[in-house]
Amino acid sequence: MKRLRLAIAMVALAALVPLSSSVHGAAPVTAPTGLKVSGTLTIGTNFGYPPMEDFTGANANVPFGADVDLGRALAAKMGLKANFLNITDFGTIIIGLQQHKFDMIMSSMNVTPARAKQVNFVSYFLAGQSIVVKKGNPKHISTLADLSGQAVSMQAGTTEVDAANAANVALKKAGKPQITIKTYQQDTTALQQVALGRVSAELTDYPVAVYDSTKFSNQFQIAGKQYAALPYGIAIRKSDPSILKAVNAAFKLVVKDGEYLTILKKYHLEQGAISH
């Protein structure tokens, strides 16, 4: 998955994003102590990963995405405003958190054992891999096994390549034709191969597959359900139990009142819903 790989190294750029409105009256969750800015939940995010987090508008400075909406909803439960900082190098985002540049990370970050040693996580979404095919799914594909003997595209260096290689081991053991793996530097190039009919399918991250199949609904669709799912987690410093407690409580309320599922449905991501 994309978030398991490091982004291209760049100097981190802080970009102020429009804030959510705080709730009126007493907030249902007590605001945490130790915030970087009083009255504000400052969130480190690596934008440019639709439909989870990206910019839109004439000047490409209007934030949108499931993480943006959910981050605002969590802040509102605490009676806070949400302010997102654009951390352009995903590889430095945990370092920035440890340096108290923001209060938490919400950026499609996979929960991994290595990361869990550095930060606390509140899991909020299950993101796996998906198979993208031509509209109508002419070859009736629903699983990796259905791609036996066919050519498949994917971005180089991703866990999709690992999954395809693992599938080939199983196919070979079963005496079936293997998948022909074709890798490309950009996910968009890999998707284009499907449109051109050069491959039967593209393997990509579930949220990206949803975005592509929605934006280009006349060309593509997702085949079957996502697989190899791992949770996305909100990362919080281990030294900030107050923030962890508040985020956990706020997330439970957002799930309970239905706002969580409403946000996921807005971006057609309900298949990745997780509950606490």
Report on this structure.
The radius of gyration is 20 Å and the shape is elongated. The chain folds into two domains: 168 residues, Periplasmic binding protein-like II (D-Maltodextrin-Binding Protein, domain 2, 3-Layer(aba) Sandwich), CATH 3.40.190.10; 101 residues, Periplasmic binding protein-like II (D-Maltodextrin-Binding Protein, domain 2, 3-Layer(aba) Sandwich). The strands form two sheets. An eight-stranded mixed sheet has the order 4-1-5-10-6-9-7-8, with helices on both faces. With 276 residues, the protein is α/β, with parallel strands linked by helices. The two termini are 24 Å apart. About 7% of the residues have low confidence.
Question: Tags for this entry?
Answer:
276 residues, alpha/beta, D-Maltodextrin-Binding Protein, domain 2, 2 domains, 8-stranded mixed beta sheet, two-stranded antiparallel sheet, 8 helices, elongated
Oligomeric state of the chains in view: single chain
What share of the residues does DSSP label as strand, in percent? Answer: 25-35%
Record the strand order, biggest sheet. 4-1-5-10-6-9-7-8
Low-confidence stretches: 5-24
Number of strands: 10
User: How many distinct folded domains?
Assistant: 2
Percent in helix: 25-40%
Here the CATH topology of the largest domain equals D-Maltodextrin-Binding Protein, domain 2
Helix-strand topology string: EEEHEHEHEEHEHEHEHH
Number of helices: 8
Structural class: alpha/beta
What is the class of the largest domain in the CATH system?
Answer: Alpha Beta
Termini separation comes to 24 Å
What form results from the Cα inertia axes?
elongated
CATH architecture group name of the largest domain: 3-Layer(aba) Sandwich
The value of Rg in angstroms is 20 Å
- Average residue pLDDT: 90
